[in-house]
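pasting for ref
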Amino acid sequence: MKLTAQQLFDDKKYRFNNQLEELQEAQRENKKEQGFIEQLQERFYRVQQQEHKLYEHSLNEVDPEERPFFEERQDEGFHLSRKALQEFEEEQEQLAQDRKNLLEQEDSVRFDQRTFLKSEGKENLSGTKI
């Protein structure tokens, strides 16, 4: 079965629209993930502040011979906190790069779509159908 020129045009236009919808959905998911990471960072920061207060209180209240044990735990906690924060930052950087790539892909598909529509004579310079 041979497709007509209009059917071919409609099929190509449909594929462009699908690509754009998929990219936009991926962008929405990326934005959700970024928000989730930001929420985790905020919660983590609050927990980190509470932990710091608890260690400070413990260090002030313990016997001098027990103090090195709590100092060591505090140092270990700080090290783990820094590592976790670094992982959050790396995740944010990756999400930002993914977002940039998705936007570039969307721009490319839109450019290809406009080029196709113009080459088919279905769009004037303002971007509206004739």
